[in-house]
Write a structure and sequence with these properties.
The chain is of the alpha+beta class. The radius of gyration is 28 Å and the shape is globular.
């Protein structure tokens, strides 16, 4: 338990004499009522590994921060107190202070914002975390995270709209605000609240408006849509602000006042409309995920096409399945899937804890994605072992008497058939992983179009290469094989193109962080983006031409080589853009490591090598 000092000031103590029955979202404030009485009233939390139950009479009520923006002077005392109590390194801060500003001299206005975890009623971090490191407690409604369970995938940092979970690239794990539950147990407010010089921060049972406050709003300029997570934070802001408030960090976002008084995020074209290549910036810390998604989708595209197509009686695929090259094709599928899983593991902050990725199958799409892909890999491997005796090369090496021909075909078909729903499940939840309201640029049908399109494109490319090898080994003509793969490529490019057109139209018409991502896409990466789309359209035209004309000889070979190489480039560049462009719905930050422009500036001039600055190079 936290030791209360003899001279603890009165303002540091909680003071909730009465509490509301329900909160703004019509949920009971009494957390025992929410669980139907399943949670015990006097459950020990073992804070700091110590047994015992505190003296707080409102222990099982949902608590919340209250922030009075009019009082915040931007001194960052709350940040310092939080970091000191939690012994955080310089580059990690559970609470941060940013600000928005607007107007012109002499009517310039600035509003500071202090933000930490909001211990939401619907915590998306808890649902997203594959390791089950998060728990929503019936004590105080605290959403607590166990860093020792975390393996550092960072997915919770993607889904949280408030940038509350902090991924430490040095330690390779996430940690976050714990509501100072050890202080709450003995009746004290959190450390950040007690340290606030301007009396801007307060804390208590949710919906209890602090003394000398008249508002308990759920929104403030710069604060993301509260319907995403139903956060437990309330605001007061009474001073008049400009109709347009801008951020002081690198995000191309500003906030425009609506008729109802709330502020809507809109694009701030602060860096102009000039377009650039920025090829080097396409490389990011998410490169392993680029390889994971592309290689896994290629594997799914190959196996789905060959296995299902051969069962539907497509002659060219039947010939491929019956040829000596079918086992090498399956080895390619296994190799690509294994590479994808390896890359997803390499992306973790603590790769040796990869086995914890299935702890939250009930909620996390990351768990379901991984499980689907793992089952797909296993089934394809067993399918390959069962068809191995039918392979002529295997028979020539070990003889046909070792395992009689046809003995395992039924088992092979079973495993092959089971791999289809497993792979489809993995692909679906791969798509669901990116339907994140906190990242509007990803939260669009285009993500699904791109993933399915890449299955067809990369699957078609590799089937073409394996088909050519089959023709060379067996001395047969490619015949309908090239027509089939040209059709696959054509459909894949069409899906990608339709998704891009719909995505571009929607991102241009909305006013949120997705529109800001599209602005970056059309400016910072404008030349790369346009060139990639031109090549995609040219590939569609070329694939259609090859399908309709089936050219032979040298010109046909050249056309196919060009199509294959450009198709791979289109997929890689498109997926790299997918990861580097996203602008999350984070709170406006303007202080050191929270400011992305400062972070880049620190890296450019060498400040990032000084740990006291609080900028850590990308280790994850």
């Amino acid at each position: 338990m936290w030791n209360v000092r003899d001279d603890e000031p009165q303002y540091a103590f909680l003071n909730d004499k009465e509490t509301a029955a329900v909160n703004y979202y019509e949920a009971p404030v009494d957390l025992i009522a929410r669980t139907g009485g399943a949670a015990p009233l006097e459950r020990e939390m073992f804070i700091n590994e110590e047994p015992g139950v505190g003296c707080n009479p409102n222990r099982n009520k949902q608590h919340a921060f209250h922030f009075t923006a009019d009082n915040c002077i931007g001194c960052h005392a709350c940040e310092a107190a939080c970091s000191e109590k939690n012994d955080n390194p310089p580059h990690i801060s559970f609470r941060s202070v940013g600000y928005v500003e607007g107007g012109t001299y002499p009517n310039f206005t600035r509003m500071n914002i202090s933000m930490a975890c909001n211990h939401c009623d619907d915590p998306v971090c808890l649902k997203g975390c594959p390791t089950g490191a998060y728990t929503k407690h019936a004590e105080y409604g605290a959403v607590l995270q166990d860093p020792d369970t975390c393996f550092g995938c960072g997915y919770c940092t993607w889904v949280c709209p408030y940038n509350a979970p902090q991924l430490d690239p040095v330690e390779g794990q996430v940690s976050k605000c714990n509501m100072c539950v050890d202080r709450l147990e003995v009746g004290l407010k959190p450390a950040c609240v007690s340290a606030c010089l301007g009396n801007a921060l307060n804390f208590g049972v949710v919906e209890n408006t602090p003394e000398n406050r008249e508002q308990a709003k759920i929104q403030i300029p710069g604060f993301p849509d509260p319907q995403i997570t139903q956060p437990n934070v309330r605001f007061q802001q009474t001073k008049k602000m400009a109709d347009e408030m801008t951020r002081t960090d690198g995000m191309p976002i500003k906030y425009h006042k609506q008729e109802d008084g709330n502020y809507q995020p809109v694009v701030d074209q602060k860096k102009g409309k000039a377009t650039f290549w920025n090829i080097k910036k396409l490389s990011s810390r998410e490169n392993p995920l680029v390889l994971f998604t592309l290689s896994t989708q290629a594997a799914l595209g190959i196996f789905f096409t060959v296995f299902i197509g051969s069962r539907l009686g497509i002659d060219s695929l039947n010939s491929l399945v019956q040829s000596v090259m079918y086992v090498p094709l399956l080895l390619v599928v296994l190799g690509l899937t294994a590479l994808g899983l390896l890359m997803s593991t390499v992306h973790l902050g603590k790769p040796h804890r990869f086995y914890r990725g299935f702890n939250n199958l009930r909620h996390s799409p990351v768990c379901r994605e991984g499980l689907g892909i793992c089952i797909f890999l296993t089934c394809v491997g067993l399918h390959m072992l069962c068809v191995l005796p039918e392979n002529s090369l295997f028979q020539s090496l070990f003889g046909s008497e070792l395992i009689p021909s046809g003995m395992l075909l039924g088992t092979a078909n079973f495993f092959g058939a089971f791999a289809i729903p497993a792979g489809a499940t993995g692909l679906y939840y791969m798509y669901r992983c990116y339907r994140i309201p906190a990242r509007p640029f990803w939260d669009h049908a285009h993500t699904g179009f791109a993933f399915v399109g890449n299955c067809l494109i990369l699957g078609g490319v590799l089937i073409t290469i394996i088909g050519v090898a089959t023709a060379l080994v067996d001395g047969e003509t490619l015949g309908n094989m090239l027509d089939l793969t040209a059709l696959m490529l054509m459909v894949g490019f069409t899906l990608e193109g339709l998704g891009l057109l719909k995505h571009s139209k929607d991102m241009n018409s909305i006013q949120n962080e997705g529109a800001a991502s599209h602005y970056i896409q059309c400016t910072t990466f404008g030349k790369s983006y346009v060139t990639r789309n031109i090549v995609l359209a040219a590939n569609l035209l070329l694939a259609t031409t090859l399908l309709l004309t089936s050219p032979q000889g040298v010109m046909g070979v050249i056309a196919w080589v060009v199509l294959i190489l450009s198709a791979v480039c289109v997929s890689v560049v498109g997926r790299a853009l997918f990861y580097v462009l996203v602008v999350p719905t984070t709170m406006p930050g303007a202080f050191f490591w929270k400011n992305k422009d400062f972070e880049q500036h620190a890296k450019d001039i060498g400040l990032a090598e000084m740990p006291q600055v609080g900028v850590v190079p990308d280790n994850h």
